[in-house]
Amino acid sequence: MLDYKMQTSTETAVAVRNLSFSYPDGQRALRGVSLTVARGEKVAIVGPNGAGKSTLLLHLNGILEGQGEVEITGRPLRDGHKEELRALLGLVFQNPDDQLFSPTVFEDVAFGPLYMGLPEDEVRQRVDEALRQVGMSGLEERMPHRLSLGERKRVAIATVLSMKPAILAVDEPSLGLDPRARRSLINLLQELPQTIIACTHDMHLVRDLFPRTVILDEGRVVADGPTEALLSDVALLEEHGLEAP
User: Fold this and answer.
1) 11, exposed or middle or buried, with CB in 10 Å at 0-12, 13-18, 19+?
2) pTM
3) Burial track 18-56 (b if 16+ CB lie within 10 A, e otherwise)
């Protein structure tokens, strides 16, 4: 593995150690992945199709379970306190329609806090705050399926923010967005204080938003370091099916 050293916070948000996973059909998606993300970091995970990026994200909140260790804020993601740790890491799916299922924006964003058993006043406060963070205030009564793709992506992020996670794991955040919506999303993600881990094919997004990049290929981490250094290594990018922006 190519490892470009860089300084990070000493407080760990996510730690993955020797994680391997195979799907029921025998496809090996992850092969001994190890990765540590410090609190407050914004990290891009890139690689060709089939590299294991989305599979890795699904392990970070326990949707999938492979062999190895996943820790969230220093604690193992195991059955004893899995639900508690899942609340600390909010997962935003590639397709917002997989995350939005209620008749109104308000109900979608309120779903998580209601599930937590919070009182009505706090639920409303969390919905208001989350929608304000993503620039969607005033659209509480809109039907999600009538929103644009960019707007639906913002609401999907709000459904996670209303749970007040410490970490966001985002799958292909800019996929399908037009240039204006894409720039708006970049500005949003830049402003959020959470640790952010994003899987993406959008190398321009990587350059513009993420100081650190991890390259996955065939289920293995093949490079990890400052984005500027990795994106300037043309031979490395070509070897793993990537192009410099």
Assistant:
1) exposed
2) 0.91
3) ebebeeeeeeebbbebebebbbebbbbbbbeeebbbbbb
